[in-house]
Specification:
It is built from three helices and no strands. With about 140 residues, it is an all-alpha fold. The protein has a domain of about 70 residues. One of its GO terms (cellular component) is membrane.
């Protein structure tokens, strides 16, 4: 993942002039689909990061969490199992993208950047859910529906 010589970094790489060509349709352009996959993760991260940091700053000094009275929401175990499965899939995608990128002539960010952002988004979502669950305030989950 180290920069190859002095190259410009492009999302779809510099060695494919047809990477931004839409003549075959949007759904056949892999680079466009990877960029489209990146949009919701980045958008939701801009929303959840401030909520998490504001929530941690206000809760940590005022609320003592008693774990023996902590009630799990319905589906708690299933949510954690599915989230860790998703994180494992993202780690595999990141590895696949990095290995594929090392075989290219130029850097192709679309091979691993969406998986990295998906990993960060999944991690952020489970931290958000954990904070809501430990504070016993399920009304904050309504924003997710």
């Amino acid at each position: 993942m180290f920069p190859k010589e002095a190259e410009k970094v492009a999302f779809c790489g510099n060695d494919n002039p047809s990477a931004y060509n839409m003549s075959r349709g949007l759904l056949s352009n892999v680079c466009f689909l990877d960029a489209l996959n990146l949009v919701p993760h980045v958008f939701l991260l801009f929303i959840t990061f401030p909520i998490l940091f504001i929530g941690w700053g206000t809760q940590s000094s005022k609320v003592q969490i008693h774990h023996n009275t902590w009630l799990h929401f319905p589906g708690h175990n299933l949510r954690w199992i599915l989230t860790f499965t998703l994180l494992f899939v993202h780690v595999c995608e990141i590895g696949e993208g990095i290995v594929s990128d090392t075989r290219m002539l130029t850097r192709h960010l679309h091979l691993f950047l969406p998986a990295i952002m998906g990993f960060v988004a999944a991690t952020t979502s489970i931290v958000y859910y954990h904070n809501i669950e430990t504070s016993n305030f399920p009304k904050l989950l309504l924003g997710k529906y």
